[in-house]
């Protein structure tokens, strides 16, 4: 029967959008040899975004031009001749980076003493995802009067209960997983003190 040279995808974990290829080489076996590619035990359909190219009678290449989560699975090269069948399987794991939903402070103008809050949420990405907040590119300390907390594994909030001029700046949410680190920034502008009193003058 044929003998298939072991193969694997170059990276154990491949990021979404990357390219991937594996080559199946039959190192032994009498002709004719039929080479077949399978994904999770099933023939690979033309609409799966996978290209298969025969190099010669004894070798074949499987290529994916743009990896997506649907390409997760086990890829098998199966070689068959009159004497029997041999095969080898390589797993493909696709890493999906986080995608942050656009956010901004709700009010265009904040005055001293107001409450400000923003929520950083991700619409996709492999777990676990970690969140970090920065102000003007630097880590936020508890002494700044700013609190952050996790809503769930997909969202994290930043709250300022009593804004002051010191809170003016750019607030960045950094979301990270094993695939990538992404960020989004919102600007906070704090103006003068809000007046809670109203003076009314009557003219006779």
From TrEMBL:
Its name, as the record gives it, is Ig-like domain-containing protein
Extract the InterPro entries matched here: Ig-like_dom, Ig-like_dom_sf, Ig-like_fold, Ig_I-set, Ig_sub, Ig_sub2
Gene3D superfamilies recorded for this chain? Answer: Immunoglobulins
Domain of life according to the entry: Eukaryota
Q: Name one Pfam family in it.
A: I-set
Keyword annotations for this protein, in alphabetical order, are: Immunoglobulin domain
Q: Where is the Ig-like domain?
A: 2-93, 98-183
Q: Which GO terms describe its molecular function?
A: cell-cell adhesion mediator activity
Instruction: List the GO cellular component terms.
Output: axon; plasma membrane
According to the record, the signal peptide region is none
Asked whether the UniProt record includes Disulfide bond among its keywords, one would answer no
